């Protein structure tokens, strides 16, 4: 295995970890974002019960992504973290506050106390999602580097583009949360989630279109990747696939209820969630097309930022054991808690 192979392998591992975090924590953050539209009491309790077995485990991939970046691409870590300190700190504080609110809402004896922690769960989820989107936008628009350090200012992360991506991620997570509830619930909450998912899908696709139009203007390299030859011969597949998945999403949300076996209903209700995840994956692929092979845009590649080969090889041995174990455990948990969640089931005080 050549020295150049190791940064590539690690880039794939970390990119996969980040996407798994976005996909898994995205839907449970989305459930929190939707809280103001859910009725107090049974609807909110049922929504929380759908994510209670998995929500904290979903954040495992955030730890792997951040820790892996520090260990394997230390130069990128040393540049990106100072550039994004504020949105990342706000994100972490919001995730902590959200976790506290998640647990405390079940321990309140009064309606006033329950309402306060419900609001905290919504606020923490929304702020965490917005902060992640702002950090993403600030990262994509480029980071000022001088020598081997961050050369920008304290407020460089805040821009119209980063605010746009922040709002886009809130809408996208809301879509994931709504389609997750379509899949995991039935009755009144199921129908409400279905009604919420359609406009959220439209808003999310509108944000995707807006971000896609702005990105080629941010940096000439982005325009060359999407509109230059020979890239254009291949990258057209991504926007076409987005359109096709959007059709699948809206058709599934508009489909009439079916009569039949519960398993058939469960699979049919999973289609909107699968389509929403597919949209996120395609956006992630599009982001990769724009940035590759830079890990710190606009000019530091994965090979520039990589740790010594001996360090990468040593850590890869550990990752080859740890990552499959986490995947197996995660899959087992989702399998154990498969199926619809009904009132009275799930998480209890």
Compact summary:
The protein is built from 15 helices and 4 strands. Helix 1 crosses helix 8, helix 9 crosses helix 10 and helix 12 packs antiparallel against helix 13.
Structure description:
The protein is mostly helical and 349 residues long. The protein has one domain. The chain contains 15 helices and 4 strands. It has helices spanning 5-33, 42-51, 55-58, 60-72, 74-83, 85-104, 111-140, 160-184, 188-218, 220-227, 232-235, 237-254, 262-291, 302-305, 309-336; strands at 145-146, 149-150, 294-296, 300-301. It has a two-stranded antiparallel ribbon with strand order 1-2. Strands 3-4 form a two-stranded antiparallel ribbon. Strand 1 (145-146) and strand 2 (149-150) form a beta hairpin. Helix 6 (85-104) runs antiparallel to helix 7 and helix 9 (188-218) packs antiparallel against helix 12. It is globular, with a radius of gyration of 21 Å. The N and C termini lie far apart (53 Å).
């Amino acid at each position: 295995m050549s020295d150049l192979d190791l940064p590539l392998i690690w880039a794939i591992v970390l990119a996969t970890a980040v996407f798994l975090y976005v996909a898994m924590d995205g839907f449970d953050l989305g459930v929190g974002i939707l809280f103001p539209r859910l009725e107090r009491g049974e609807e909110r309790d049922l929504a929380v019960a759908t994510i209670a077995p998995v929500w904290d485990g979903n954040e495992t991939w955030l730890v792997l992504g951040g820790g892996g970046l520090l260990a394997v691409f230390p130069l990128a870590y040393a540049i990106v973290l100072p550039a994004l300190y504020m949105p990342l700190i706000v994100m972490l504080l919001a995730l902590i506050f959200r976790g506290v609110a998640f647990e405390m809402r079940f321990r309140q004896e009064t309606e006033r106390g329950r309402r306060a922690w419900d609001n905290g769960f919504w606020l923490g989820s929304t702020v965490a999602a917005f902060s992640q989107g702002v950090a993403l936008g600030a990262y994509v628009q480029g980071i000022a580097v001088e020598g081997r350090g961050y050369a920008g200012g304290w407020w460089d992360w805040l821009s119209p583009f980063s605010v746009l991506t922040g709002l886009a991620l809130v809408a996208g997570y809301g879509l994931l949360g709504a389609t997750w509830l379509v899949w995991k619930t039935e009755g009144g909450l199921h129908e409400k989630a279905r009604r919420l998912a359609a406009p959220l899908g439209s808003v999310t696709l509108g944000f995707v279109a807006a971000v896609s139009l702005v990105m080629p203007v941010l940096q000439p390299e982005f325009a060359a990747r999407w509109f230059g030859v020979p890239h254009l011969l291949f990258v057209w597949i991504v926007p076409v696939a987005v359109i096709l998945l959007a059709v699948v999403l809206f058709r599934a949300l508009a489909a009439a209820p079916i009569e039949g076996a519960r398993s058939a209903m469960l699979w049919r209700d999973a289609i909107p969630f699968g389509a929403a995840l597919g949209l996120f994956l395609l956006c992630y692929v599009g982001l990769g097309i724009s940035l590759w092979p830079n890990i710190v845009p606009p000019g530091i590649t994965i090979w520039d930022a990589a740790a010594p080969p001996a360090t990468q090889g040593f850590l890869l041995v550990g990752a080859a054991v740890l990552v499959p174990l986490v995947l197996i455990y995660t899959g087992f948990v989702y399998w154990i808690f498969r199926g619809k969640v009904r009132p009275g089931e799930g998480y209890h005080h």
